[in-house]
Specification:
The chain is built from 15 helices and twelve strands. The protein has 435 residues and is of the alpha/beta class. The chain has a domain of 175 residues: Leucine Dehydrogenase, chain A, domain 1 (Rossmann fold, 3-Layer(aba) Sandwich). The strands form two sheets. It has a seven-stranded mixed beta sheet with strand order 9-8-7-6-10-11-12. Strands 1-2-4-3-5 form a five-stranded mixed beta sheet. Helix 2 packs parallel to helix 4, helix 13 packs across helix 14 and helix 14 crosses helix 15. The longest helix is centred in the last third of the chain and has 26 residues. Bound molecules: NADPH dihydro-nicotinamide-adenine-dinucleotide phosphate and 2-oxoglutaric acid. The site of NADPH dihydro-nicotinamide-adenine-dinucleotide phosphate has 28 residues, from strand 7.
Amino acid sequence: MTMASKSDNAGDESAQEADEPVEPTSAVETARRQLSHAADHLDIDPNVVERLKHPKKVHEVTIPVERDDGTVEVFTGYRAQHDSVRGPYKGGLRYHPHVTRDECVGLGMWMTWKCAVMDLPFGGAKGGVAVDPKELSTDEKERLTRRFAQELRDAIGPNRDIPAPDMGTDPQTMAWLMDAYSMQEGETIPGVVTGKPPVVGGSEGREEAPGRSVAIITQLVCEYYDRPLAETTVAVQGYGSVGANAARLLDDWGATVVAISDVNGAMYDPAGIDTASVPSHDEEPEAVTTYADTVITNDELLTLDVDVLVPAALGNVITEANADAIAADLVIEGANGPTTAAADSILAARDVAVIPDILANAGGVTVSYFEWLQDINRRSWSLERVNDELETEMRAAWRAVRTEFEARDVTWRDAAYIVALTRIAEAHESRGLWP
Ligand SMILES: NC(=O)C1=CN([C@@H]2O[C@H](COP(=O)(O)OP(=O)(O)OC[C@H]3O[C@@H](n4cnc5c(N)ncnc54)[C@H](OP(=O)(O)O)[C@@H]3O)[C@@H](O)[C@H]2O)C=CC1
Ligand SMILES: O=C(O)CCC(=O)C(=O)O
Protein backbone atom coordinates (compact mmCIF):
# COMPACT_ATOMS: atom_id res chain seq x y z
CA MET A 1 0.00 0.00 0.00
CA THR A 2 1.35 3.45 -0.82
CA MET A 3 1.16 6.35 1.61
CA ALA A 4 -0.50 9.14 -0.36
CA SER A 5 -3.13 7.00 -2.04
CA LYS A 6 -4.18 3.37 -2.25
CA SER A 7 -2.91 3.45 -5.84
CA ASP A 8 0.17 4.93 -7.40
CA ASN A 9 -1.93 7.43 -9.35
CA ALA A 10 -2.07 10.02 -6.57
CA GLY A 11 0.64 12.19 -8.10
CA ASP A 12 -1.19 12.33 -11.41
CA GLU A 13 -4.54 12.77 -9.66
CA SER A 14 -3.33 15.86 -7.87
CA ALA A 15 -1.09 17.25 -10.61
CA GLN A 16 -1.94 20.86 -11.34
CA GLU A 17 -3.54 21.98 -14.53
CA ALA A 18 -0.99 23.57 -16.84
CA ASP A 19 -2.67 26.98 -16.81
CA GLU A 20 -2.66 27.32 -13.02
CA PRO A 21 -0.07 29.67 -11.47
CA VAL A 22 2.92 27.80 -10.05
CA GLU A 23 2.74 28.78 -6.39
CA PRO A 24 -0.20 30.56 -4.77
CA THR A 25 0.91 33.44 -2.59
CA SER A 26 -1.93 33.67 -0.08
CA ALA A 27 -4.13 31.46 2.09
CA VAL A 28 -7.18 32.39 0.03
CA GLU A 29 -5.52 31.31 -3.23
CA THR A 30 -4.42 28.01 -1.70
CA ALA A 31 -7.92 27.45 -0.28
CA ARG A 32 -9.55 28.20 -3.66
CA ARG A 33 -7.23 25.85 -5.52
CA GLN A 34 -7.87 23.07 -3.01
CA LEU A 35 -11.63 23.64 -3.43
CA SER A 36 -11.48 23.47 -7.25
CA HIS A 37 -9.31 20.40 -7.11
CA ALA A 38 -11.64 18.50 -4.78
CA ALA A 39 -14.79 19.65 -6.60
CA ASP A 40 -13.44 17.97 -9.76
CA HIS A 41 -14.02 14.64 -8.02
CA LEU A 42 -17.67 15.38 -7.25
CA ASP A 43 -20.88 15.79 -9.15
CA ILE A 44 -21.54 19.09 -7.43
CA ASP A 45 -23.46 22.16 -8.66
CA PRO A 46 -20.77 24.50 -10.10
CA ASN A 47 -22.81 27.46 -8.84
CA VAL A 48 -22.32 26.23 -5.28
CA VAL A 49 -18.58 25.88 -5.90
CA GLU A 50 -18.46 29.41 -7.31
CA ARG A 51 -20.35 30.71 -4.23
CA LEU A 52 -17.94 28.94 -1.90
CA LYS A 53 -14.92 30.62 -3.48
CA HIS A 54 -16.05 33.91 -1.92
CA PRO A 55 -16.70 34.99 1.67
CA LYS A 56 -20.20 36.10 2.52
CA LYS A 57 -18.90 39.20 4.31
CA VAL A 58 -15.59 40.64 5.55
CA HIS A 59 -15.60 43.15 8.40
CA GLU A 60 -12.59 45.47 8.51
CA VAL A 61 -12.20 47.74 11.52
CA THR A 62 -9.66 50.14 12.95
CA ILE A 63 -8.77 49.75 16.60
CA PRO A 64 -7.24 52.75 18.42
CA VAL A 65 -5.29 51.58 21.46
CA GLU A 66 -3.76 53.78 24.13
CA ARG A 67 -0.24 52.53 24.76
CA ASP A 68 1.09 52.54 28.31
CA ASP A 69 3.14 55.68 27.51
CA GLY A 70 -0.04 57.63 26.65
CA THR A 71 0.39 57.58 22.85
CA VAL A 72 -2.33 56.10 20.65
CA GLU A 73 -1.61 53.44 18.02
CA VAL A 74 -4.24 52.36 15.50
CA PHE A 75 -4.36 48.69 14.50
CA THR A 76 -6.43 47.01 11.76
CA GLY A 77 -8.68 44.06 12.55
CA TYR A 78 -10.76 41.73 10.38
CA ARG A 79 -13.51 39.17 10.67
CA ALA A 80 -14.09 37.18 7.49
CA GLN A 81 -17.41 35.30 7.51
CA HIS A 82 -17.26 32.68 4.79
CA ASP A 83 -20.35 30.48 4.84
CA SER A 84 -23.18 29.87 7.32
CA VAL A 85 -25.38 27.40 5.49
CA ARG A 86 -24.90 24.72 8.19
CA GLY A 87 -25.07 27.06 11.21
CA PRO A 88 -23.56 30.17 12.83
CA TYR A 89 -20.08 31.24 11.71
CA LYS A 90 -17.31 29.73 13.83
CA GLY A 91 -13.56 30.23 13.95
CA GLY A 92 -10.62 31.73 15.75
CA LEU A 93 -9.08 35.18 16.14
CA ARG A 94 -5.40 35.56 15.40
CA TYR A 95 -3.05 38.26 16.72
CA HIS A 96 -0.01 38.27 14.43
CA PRO A 97 1.86 40.93 12.41
CA HIS A 98 1.10 39.10 9.12
CA VAL A 99 -2.71 39.07 9.52
CA THR A 100 -4.38 40.37 6.35
CA ARG A 101 -7.87 40.39 4.86
CA ASP A 102 -6.95 37.63 2.41
CA GLU A 103 -5.40 35.46 5.10
CA CYS A 104 -8.61 35.72 7.16
CA VAL A 105 -10.74 34.80 4.12
CA GLY A 106 -8.61 31.72 3.37
CA LEU A 107 -8.60 30.66 7.02
CA GLY A 108 -12.38 31.25 7.16
CA MET A 109 -12.88 28.94 4.16
CA TRP A 110 -10.89 26.23 5.91
CA MET A 111 -13.14 26.66 8.97
CA THR A 112 -16.22 26.00 6.81
CA TRP A 113 -14.74 22.71 5.56
CA LYS A 114 -13.42 21.78 9.03
CA CYS A 115 -16.81 22.17 10.71
CA ALA A 116 -18.42 20.14 7.91
CA VAL A 117 -15.81 17.33 8.10
CA MET A 118 -16.61 17.11 11.82
CA ASP A 119 -20.35 17.36 11.06
CA LEU A 120 -20.71 20.30 13.48
CA PRO A 121 -23.70 22.65 13.07
CA PHE A 122 -21.47 25.62 12.23
CA GLY A 123 -20.21 27.56 9.24
CA GLY A 124 -16.76 29.08 8.90
CA ALA A 125 -15.13 32.38 9.83
CA LYS A 126 -11.75 33.69 10.91
CA GLY A 127 -10.50 37.02 12.12
CA GLY A 128 -7.54 38.73 13.59
CA VAL A 129 -5.56 41.85 14.22
CA ALA A 130 -2.31 42.79 12.47
CA VAL A 131 -0.25 43.21 15.63
CA ASP A 132 2.69 41.56 17.36
CA PRO A 133 1.16 40.57 20.72
CA LYS A 134 4.64 40.15 22.20
CA GLU A 135 5.13 43.92 21.85
CA LEU A 136 2.02 44.74 23.92
CA SER A 137 1.76 44.75 27.70
CA THR A 138 -1.11 42.79 29.27
CA ASP A 139 -3.04 46.05 29.79
CA GLU A 140 -2.53 47.05 26.15
CA LYS A 141 -3.71 43.62 24.96
CA GLU A 142 -6.80 43.96 27.11
CA ARG A 143 -7.59 47.43 25.69
CA LEU A 144 -7.04 46.16 22.14
CA THR A 145 -9.32 43.16 22.68
CA ARG A 146 -12.13 45.12 24.34
CA ARG A 147 -12.10 47.71 21.55
CA PHE A 148 -12.03 44.97 18.88
CA ALA A 149 -15.05 43.35 20.58
CA GLN A 150 -16.86 46.68 20.51
CA GLU A 151 -16.15 47.18 16.80
CA LEU A 152 -17.40 43.63 16.05
CA ARG A 153 -20.49 43.89 18.27
CA ASP A 154 -22.99 43.68 15.39
CA ALA A 155 -21.07 40.93 13.60
CA ILE A 156 -20.72 38.39 16.41
CA GLY A 157 -23.16 36.69 18.80
CA PRO A 158 -23.91 33.19 20.11
CA ASN A 159 -26.23 32.43 17.18
CA ARG A 160 -24.41 34.58 14.63
CA ASP A 161 -20.64 34.23 14.78
CA ILE A 162 -18.67 32.70 17.65
CA PRO A 163 -14.93 33.55 17.84
CA ALA A 164 -12.31 31.41 19.60
CA PRO A 165 -8.52 31.42 20.14
CA ASP A 166 -5.97 31.04 17.38
CA MET A 167 -2.29 31.96 17.11
CA GLY A 168 -1.36 34.79 19.49
CA THR A 169 -4.64 34.72 21.45
CA ASP A 170 -5.53 32.61 24.49
CA PRO A 171 -8.26 31.93 27.09
CA GLN A 172 -7.65 35.32 28.75
CA THR A 173 -8.22 37.08 25.40
CA MET A 174 -11.52 35.21 25.07
CA ALA A 175 -12.56 36.16 28.63
CA TRP A 176 -12.03 39.89 27.82
CA LEU A 177 -13.97 39.49 24.58
CA MET A 178 -16.86 37.76 26.35
CA ASP A 179 -16.90 40.41 29.06
CA ALA A 180 -16.81 43.35 26.60
CA TYR A 181 -19.61 41.85 24.49
CA SER A 182 -21.69 41.03 27.57
CA MET A 183 -21.30 44.55 28.95
CA GLN A 184 -22.55 46.01 25.66
CA GLU A 185 -25.56 43.67 25.70
CA GLY A 186 -26.30 44.26 29.38
CA GLU A 187 -26.27 40.57 30.29
CA THR A 188 -23.68 37.81 30.60
CA ILE A 189 -23.51 35.85 27.35
CA PRO A 190 -20.83 33.16 27.69
CA GLY A 191 -21.79 31.50 24.35
CA VAL A 192 -20.52 34.43 22.28
CA VAL A 193 -16.95 33.05 22.32
CA THR A 194 -15.35 29.70 23.08
CA GLY A 195 -11.92 28.86 24.44
CA LYS A 196 -12.62 30.86 27.62
CA PRO A 197 -11.17 29.92 31.03
CA PRO A 198 -13.48 27.29 32.62
CA VAL A 199 -14.30 29.67 35.48
CA VAL A 200 -16.28 31.90 33.07
CA GLY A 201 -17.97 29.19 31.02
CA GLY A 202 -15.01 27.71 29.19
CA SER A 203 -14.81 23.97 28.62
CA GLU A 204 -12.38 21.66 30.31
CA GLY A 205 -9.98 20.32 27.71
CA ARG A 206 -10.50 23.08 25.08
CA GLU A 207 -6.96 24.42 25.22
CA GLU A 208 -5.44 20.98 24.75
CA ALA A 209 -8.02 19.86 22.17
CA PRO A 210 -6.41 20.79 18.82
CA GLY A 211 -3.16 19.13 19.91
CA ARG A 212 -5.11 16.14 21.23
CA SER A 213 -6.85 15.70 17.87
CA VAL A 214 -3.49 15.90 16.07
CA ALA A 215 -2.22 13.13 18.36
CA ILE A 216 -5.37 10.99 17.91
CA ILE A 217 -5.22 11.31 14.12
CA THR A 218 -1.47 10.56 14.11
CA GLN A 219 -2.17 7.40 16.08
CA LEU A 220 -4.99 6.33 13.72
CA VAL A 221 -2.90 7.03 10.60
CA CYS A 222 0.06 5.11 12.04
CA GLU A 223 -2.26 2.17 12.77
CA TYR A 224 -3.62 2.38 9.22
CA TYR A 225 -0.12 2.13 7.76
CA ASP A 226 0.90 -0.61 10.25
CA ARG A 227 3.44 1.63 11.96
CA PRO A 228 3.62 1.11 15.77
CA LEU A 229 3.85 4.44 17.61
CA ALA A 230 6.65 2.98 19.73
CA GLU A 231 8.77 2.76 16.56
CA THR A 232 7.80 6.19 15.25
CA THR A 233 9.92 9.35 15.33
CA VAL A 234 8.22 12.74 15.22
CA ALA A 235 9.28 16.36 14.58
CA VAL A 236 6.89 19.14 15.63
CA GLN A 237 7.20 22.73 14.43
CA GLY A 238 5.72 25.22 16.92
CA TYR A 239 5.30 24.54 20.63
CA GLY A 240 2.08 26.38 21.43
CA SER A 241 -1.50 25.32 22.00
CA VAL A 242 -1.38 22.87 19.08
CA GLY A 243 2.28 21.82 18.88
CA ALA A 244 3.08 21.37 22.58
CA ASN A 245 -0.08 19.41 23.35
CA ALA A 246 0.37 17.16 20.31
CA ALA A 247 4.05 16.54 21.10
CA ARG A 248 3.38 15.77 24.78
CA LEU A 249 0.55 13.33 24.05
CA LEU A 250 2.51 11.53 21.32
CA ASP A 251 5.45 11.33 23.72
CA ASP A 252 3.12 9.89 26.42
CA TRP A 253 1.69 7.37 23.95
CA GLY A 254 5.13 5.98 23.10
CA ALA A 255 6.38 7.91 20.06
CA THR A 256 9.86 9.44 20.09
CA VAL A 257 9.66 13.21 19.66
CA VAL A 258 13.08 14.22 18.33
CA ALA A 259 12.47 17.90 17.49
CA ILE A 260 10.25 20.77 18.69
CA SER A 261 10.54 24.46 17.89
CA ASP A 262 9.66 28.06 18.66
CA VAL A 263 10.03 31.20 16.58
CA ASN A 264 13.83 31.26 17.02
CA GLY A 265 14.66 27.70 16.00
CA ALA A 266 14.33 24.06 17.02
CA MET A 267 15.54 21.80 19.81
CA TYR A 268 16.86 18.54 18.30
CA ASP A 269 17.72 15.31 20.09
CA PRO A 270 17.73 12.07 18.07
CA ALA A 271 17.42 10.10 21.35
CA GLY A 272 14.09 11.79 22.11
CA ILE A 273 13.04 14.90 24.01
CA ASP A 274 11.33 14.81 27.41
CA THR A 275 8.52 17.07 26.19
CA ALA A 276 6.96 17.55 29.65
CA SER A 277 10.14 19.26 30.83
CA VAL A 278 10.06 21.96 28.11
CA PRO A 279 7.66 24.89 28.79
CA SER A 280 5.10 25.47 26.06
CA HIS A 281 4.51 28.87 24.43
CA ASP A 282 1.66 29.53 26.90
CA GLU A 283 3.86 28.69 29.87
CA GLU A 284 6.96 30.58 28.66
CA PRO A 285 7.20 31.97 25.09
CA GLU A 286 10.41 31.14 23.20
CA ALA A 287 11.40 28.60 25.89
CA VAL A 288 12.25 25.82 23.42
CA THR A 289 15.41 27.47 22.16
CA THR A 290 16.24 28.85 25.61
CA TYR A 291 16.45 25.32 27.06
CA ALA A 292 17.92 23.52 24.01
CA ASP A 293 21.39 21.96 23.99
CA THR A 294 21.32 21.60 20.20
CA VAL A 295 19.52 24.25 18.16
CA ILE A 296 18.76 23.77 14.47
CA THR A 297 16.72 26.10 12.25
CA ASN A 298 12.99 25.78 11.66
CA ASP A 299 13.78 25.01 8.00
CA GLU A 300 16.11 22.18 9.05
CA LEU A 301 13.39 20.75 11.32
CA LEU A 302 11.05 20.39 8.34
CA THR A 303 13.49 18.21 6.43
CA LEU A 304 14.67 15.99 9.31
CA ASP A 305 14.74 12.26 8.61
CA VAL A 306 11.73 11.36 10.79
CA ASP A 307 8.64 9.21 10.26
CA VAL A 308 6.09 11.92 11.08
CA LEU A 309 6.32 15.66 10.54
CA VAL A 310 3.80 17.89 12.36
CA PRO A 311 3.93 21.52 11.19
CA ALA A 312 2.05 23.32 14.00
CA ALA A 313 2.99 27.00 13.72
CA LEU A 314 2.55 29.17 10.62
CA GLY A 315 1.00 28.54 7.21
CA ASN A 316 2.91 28.12 3.91
CA VAL A 317 5.99 26.46 5.43
CA ILE A 318 6.01 23.42 3.09
CA THR A 319 6.39 24.91 -0.36
CA GLU A 320 7.60 24.14 -3.83
CA ALA A 321 11.09 25.07 -2.57
CA ASN A 322 11.39 22.38 0.14
CA ALA A 323 8.75 19.73 -0.69
CA ASP A 324 11.32 17.54 -2.41
CA ALA A 325 13.46 17.61 0.72
CA ILE A 326 10.72 16.52 3.17
CA ALA A 327 11.99 13.16 4.46
CA ALA A 328 8.96 12.14 6.58
CA ASP A 329 6.48 9.59 5.15
CA LEU A 330 3.58 11.22 6.99
CA VAL A 331 2.79 14.90 7.35
CA ILE A 332 0.06 15.64 9.90
CA GLU A 333 -1.05 19.26 9.53
CA GLY A 334 -1.36 20.82 13.00
CA ALA A 335 -1.20 24.39 11.66
CA ASN A 336 -3.80 25.74 9.26
CA GLY A 337 -2.55 25.78 5.68
CA PRO A 338 1.08 24.74 6.25
CA THR A 339 1.33 23.13 2.78
CA THR A 340 0.98 25.12 -0.44
CA ALA A 341 -0.92 23.64 -3.39
CA ALA A 342 2.30 23.17 -5.39
CA ALA A 343 3.95 21.38 -2.46
CA ASP A 344 0.88 19.17 -2.12
CA SER A 345 1.33 17.92 -5.68
CA ILE A 346 5.04 17.27 -5.16
CA LEU A 347 4.39 15.34 -1.93
CA ALA A 348 1.59 13.31 -3.53
CA ALA A 349 3.86 12.41 -6.45
CA ARG A 350 6.51 11.36 -3.90
CA ASP A 351 3.93 9.21 -2.08
CA VAL A 352 4.10 11.22 1.15
CA ALA A 353 0.74 11.08 2.93
CA VAL A 354 -0.46 14.54 4.01
CA ILE A 355 -3.29 14.43 6.53
CA PRO A 356 -5.02 17.79 6.15
CA ASP A 357 -5.53 20.48 8.78
CA ILE A 358 -9.32 20.37 8.37
CA LEU A 359 -9.27 16.89 9.90
CA ALA A 360 -6.10 16.75 12.02
CA ASN A 361 -6.46 19.94 14.09
CA ALA A 362 -10.28 19.91 14.21
CA GLY A 363 -10.31 18.95 17.89
CA GLY A 364 -10.18 22.65 18.78
CA VAL A 365 -13.43 23.58 17.10
CA THR A 366 -15.03 20.31 18.19
CA VAL A 367 -14.45 21.07 21.86
CA SER A 368 -15.52 24.66 21.11
CA TYR A 369 -18.83 23.14 20.00
CA PHE A 370 -19.00 21.23 23.30
CA GLU A 371 -18.27 24.51 25.11
CA TRP A 372 -21.05 26.32 23.22
CA LEU A 373 -23.48 23.53 24.16
CA GLN A 374 -22.42 23.76 27.80
CA ASP A 375 -22.85 27.57 27.77
CA ILE A 376 -26.29 27.47 26.18
CA ASN A 377 -27.47 24.79 28.59
CA ARG A 378 -25.65 26.26 31.61
CA ARG A 379 -24.00 22.89 32.21
CA SER A 380 -20.40 21.88 32.79
CA TRP A 381 -18.91 18.65 31.47
CA SER A 382 -16.03 16.80 33.14
CA LEU A 383 -12.65 16.61 31.42
CA GLU A 384 -13.15 12.87 31.05
CA ARG A 385 -16.45 13.37 29.21
CA VAL A 386 -14.97 16.05 26.93
CA ASN A 387 -11.99 13.85 25.99
CA ASP A 388 -14.21 10.77 25.45
CA GLU A 389 -16.63 12.67 23.21
CA LEU A 390 -13.75 14.28 21.32
CA GLU A 391 -12.22 10.88 20.63
CA THR A 392 -15.61 9.58 19.41
CA GLU A 393 -16.03 12.55 17.04
CA MET A 394 -12.45 12.31 15.73
CA ARG A 395 -12.86 8.60 15.02
CA ALA A 396 -16.16 9.22 13.20
CA ALA A 397 -14.59 11.93 11.02
CA TRP A 398 -11.55 9.73 10.36
CA ARG A 399 -13.82 6.86 9.23
CA ALA A 400 -15.75 9.17 6.88
CA VAL A 401 -12.53 10.51 5.32
CA ARG A 402 -10.93 7.06 5.13
CA THR A 403 -14.00 5.73 3.31
CA GLU A 404 -13.65 8.38 0.56
CA PHE A 405 -9.87 7.89 0.42
CA GLU A 406 -10.29 4.18 -0.21
CA ALA A 407 -13.32 4.41 -2.51
CA ARG A 408 -12.12 7.19 -4.79
CA ASP A 409 -8.39 6.72 -5.00
CA VAL A 410 -7.61 10.35 -4.09
CA THR A 411 -5.26 12.08 -1.65
CA TRP A 412 -6.19 12.41 2.02
CA ARG A 413 -6.82 16.14 1.52
CA ASP A 414 -9.20 15.53 -1.38
CA ALA A 415 -10.96 12.81 0.62
CA ALA A 416 -11.57 15.24 3.52
CA TYR A 417 -12.76 17.95 1.11
CA ILE A 418 -15.14 15.47 -0.52
CA VAL A 419 -16.72 14.66 2.86
CA ALA A 420 -17.05 18.38 3.68
CA LEU A 421 -18.20 19.60 0.27
CA THR A 422 -20.82 16.90 -0.05
CA ARG A 423 -22.41 18.00 3.25
CA ILE A 424 -22.15 21.73 2.43
CA ALA A 425 -23.47 21.34 -1.12
CA GLU A 426 -26.45 19.31 0.11
CA ALA A 427 -27.27 22.05 2.62
CA HIS A 428 -26.97 24.75 -0.08
CA GLU A 429 -29.14 22.77 -2.45
CA SER A 430 -31.72 22.29 0.26
CA ARG A 431 -31.77 25.94 1.45
CA GLY A 432 -30.98 27.59 -1.91
CA LEU A 433 -27.89 29.58 -2.79
CA TRP A 434 -28.64 32.64 -0.69
CA PRO A 435 -27.98 31.84 2.98
N1 LIG B 1 -5.35 27.47 18.99
C1 LIG B 1 -6.27 26.76 18.35
O1 LIG B 1 -7.36 26.48 18.86
C2 LIG B 1 -5.98 26.24 16.98
C3 LIG B 1 -4.89 26.66 16.25
N2 LIG B 1 -4.67 26.13 15.00
C4 LIG B 1 -3.52 26.54 14.18
O2 LIG B 1 -2.32 26.02 14.74
C5 LIG B 1 -1.24 26.90 14.48
C6 LIG B 1 -0.57 27.29 15.79
O3 LIG B 1 -1.56 27.91 16.61
P1 LIG B 1 -1.44 27.91 18.20
O4 LIG B 1 -0.78 26.66 18.66
O5 LIG B 1 -2.75 28.30 18.72
O6 LIG B 1 -0.45 29.14 18.41
P2 LIG B 1 0.31 29.59 19.74
O7 LIG B 1 0.35 31.06 19.66
O8 LIG B 1 -0.24 28.92 20.94
O9 LIG B 1 1.79 29.00 19.50
C7 LIG B 1 2.48 29.24 18.34
C8 LIG B 1 3.82 28.52 18.39
O10 LIG B 1 4.48 28.68 17.13
C9 LIG B 1 5.77 29.27 17.34
N3 LIG B 1 6.11 30.12 16.22
C10 LIG B 1 5.73 31.39 15.97
N4 LIG B 1 6.26 31.81 14.81
C11 LIG B 1 6.99 30.80 14.33
C12 LIG B 1 7.80 30.61 13.18
N5 LIG B 1 7.97 31.60 12.29
N6 LIG B 1 8.40 29.42 13.00
C13 LIG B 1 8.24 28.43 13.91
N7 LIG B 1 7.51 28.54 15.02
C14 LIG B 1 6.89 29.71 15.22
C15 LIG B 1 5.63 30.04 18.65
O11 LIG B 1 6.91 30.23 19.21
P3 LIG B 1 7.21 31.34 20.34
O12 LIG B 1 6.88 30.72 21.67
O13 LIG B 1 8.67 31.58 20.19
O14 LIG B 1 6.36 32.54 20.04
C16 LIG B 1 4.76 29.06 19.43
O15 LIG B 1 5.54 28.00 19.94
C17 LIG B 1 -1.83 28.07 13.68
O16 LIG B 1 -1.71 27.77 12.31
C18 LIG B 1 -3.30 28.04 14.08
O17 LIG B 1 -4.13 28.62 13.10
C19 LIG B 1 -5.48 25.17 14.48
C20 LIG B 1 -6.56 24.72 15.17
C21 LIG B 1 -6.95 25.27 16.45
O1 LIG C 1 -12.50 26.70 18.19
C1 LIG C 1 -12.86 27.34 17.22
O2 LIG C 1 -13.96 27.85 17.09
C2 LIG C 1 -11.93 27.58 16.06
C3 LIG C 1 -10.50 27.15 16.24
C4 LIG C 1 -9.74 27.56 15.03
O3 LIG C 1 -9.59 28.73 14.77
C5 LIG C 1 -9.27 26.55 14.10
O4 LIG C 1 -9.64 25.39 14.20
O5 LIG C 1 -8.49 26.92 13.19
